[in-house]
Amino acid sequence: MVQDKNQNSEKENAVEQQNQTADAELSFEGKTEEADKIIKNSVYGAAGIGLVPIPWVDFVGLTAIQIKMLHSLSKVYGVEFSESRGKAVITSLVSGYLPIALVQPIASFIKSIPLVGQLTGAVTMSILGGATTYAIGRVFNLHFAAGGTFWDLDANKMRAYFEEQFEEGKKVTSQARKKTTAA
């Protein structure tokens, strides 16, 4: 009889552990889906702000969108938000990737040239802003999902992943632009 109770207790414990594991997996999947939605919406916002024809306004708007995205991602993963640390990591990631560091300011400045410059600068900033936001979102999503915080993210170690995600982000942003212009 005691043996039957022990076996039942062991079975109940095993079932409880399976349920907890399943709950954790569902919770993680839910967080991943929510994070993906936040990143996608932020990319759309960043691409849209890049179309603003006024030079340098795009930088201010882009930074605000990216910081809001990081704040939202930190809520999803229960990570304490730090705006100053978020800005520092964004700056480190972006400035460490030469094509973005050079092209974004030039594209924003080109908007000051009437007509052709405005169009060229707006399209370029739209794609670069969306791609940069995508890459930043993917880096922080990966880091937070692994249990990281704002304070232990090493931008140098994440640089290769950032560059890879930036290239993916250009494709995502271009596809999104095609969908919106076709509609």
Automatic annotation (TrEMBL):
<keyword id="KW-0472">Membrane</keyword>
<protein>
    <submittedName>
        <fullName>GTPase</fullName>
    </submittedName>
</protein>
<dbReference type="InterPro" id="IPR021147">
    <property type="entry name" value="DUF697"/>
</dbReference>
<keyword id="KW-1133">Transmembrane helix</keyword>
<dbReference type="GO" id="GO:0016020">
    <property type="term" value="C:membrane"/>
</dbReference>
<keyword id="KW-0812">Transmembrane</keyword>
<feature type="region of interest" description="Disordered">
    <location>
        <begin position="1"/>
        <end position="27"/>
    </location>
</feature>
<dbReference type="Pfam" id="PF05128">
    <property type="entry name" value="DUF697"/>
</dbReference>
